[in-house]
Amino acid sequence: MPHTNTVFRDVLKLLPWSTFEGLVERYGSDRLVRRFTTKRQLTALLFGQLSGAQSLRDIEASMASHQARLYHAGGAAPPRSTFADANRDRDSRVFSDLFVAMLGATTRGLRRKMGEAVRLIDSTGLHLAGAGAQWARFSAEICGAKAHVVYDPDLERPIYHMITQAKVNDIVAAKTMPIEAGASYVFDLAYYDYGWWAALDQAGCRIVTRFKKNTPLHSVRAMPVEPATGVVSDRIGFLPGRQAKSRKNPMQDAVREIVVTMATGGTLRILSNDLDAPAKEIADLYKRRWQIELFFRVMKQTLKITHFIGRSENAVRIQIAVALIAFLLLSLLRKMAKDQPSLLEITRLVRANLMHRRDFTRLKQPRRPPPLDSPQLSLNWGCS
After folding, report:
1. What is the pLDDT of residues 171-225, one digit of tens each?
2. Based on the structure, what is the number of domains in the chain?
3. Which long-range contacts link 312-315 to residues 24+ away (Cβ below 8 Å)?
């Protein structure tokens, strides 16, 4: 009978270990380390992520119970104190740079096939509590962080992330993000800043966002509206001269207001600097913003980034980076699987079979028994 690796070992083979070793050398994260190396730290973190473990104790106990099979994957059950120290002290750039390297390898050549890049920008809050979370103090009783993400809906994966305290405004974080010339940026009201919009406009980017209710449009010119598109009106005009009493608006070029009907019966004012594209195309771009909300749901509900095994700033950064690495690995597994399951299905299958010797490309959902009133079940009962 041919030898079959565990699912976890096959998952680890998808990692670019030579790149990882180069990052470990660059940042010196294994300097003065004797046993619990950065590679073992990454292995333990991925094991916890893919198995659904929610604490250091869970990871230690679960890995210890599978030590014989983990040995061949280069893993070892980490002592809790050593594991906690590594998450607190080792350079988080080893893991975030590994994510960037993996992202570049998995997306190489795809953009030429898909055409213009679409970038969805948003953030999600992360609640922190307990020892080590003081760096993220929001108020006298609450500590929290934010994960700011740029998401590519065509590639179905994040392409940029940063972690800040929860009290940092979204637009402050956005101004430090790299701007990709010519891309379409889609975002919500949290990024309402004329100066940042002007920077995007100067880089040749298309902007798609919402108008605030109290933002007027001056020197308006109405555009024709195609019927049966859900577009109520299409107008071109100019934003106010100032965003605030003391700030002149650098966004002096004309913008576009497209009013569309929503499923709830209300209307939505969409703003764009694209004066030429069909109104429905711009409205459909704004609808795609929902995809980053679905990504956040996967990260929180499926990959459980709401449970942190370390709450220091460095530990949180490492865990977010490893969660994103796990997301890329699961996306690769999904493409390699024979039955093309959904991301949620492949996550459940990997979690259920993580330390079993199975071919991960042929993992299947268990067959559900037929309902009690099904003809098949009735026929079987009638023959008994």
Report:
1. 999 999 999 999 999 999 999 999 999 999 999 999 999 999 889 999 999 999 9
2. 1
3. 312/87, 312/88, 312/132, 312/133, 312/135, 313/135, 313/136, 313/163, 314/87, 314/88, 314/89, 314/90, 314/92, 315/84, 315/87, 315/88, 315/132
Structure token digits, residue 321: 């980076």
Residues with Cβ within 8 Å of 76's Cβ and at least 6 positions away in sequence, in order, are 35, 36, 40, 63, 67, 70
Segment 246-268 shows an average pLDDT of: 88
Nearest-angstrom CA–CA distance, 136 and 128: 8
C-alpha dihedral (280, 286, 289, 290), degrees to nearest 10:
-60
Question: What integer pLDDT is reported at residue 202 of this predicted model?
Answer: 95
The residue among 366, 319, 264 whose CA lies nearest residue 86 is 319
Structure tokens that stand for 303 in this block: 């990959």
Residue 161, in any domain of the structure: no
Range of the domain at 277: 188-287
Q: How far apart are CA 307 and CA 56, in angstroms?
A: 11
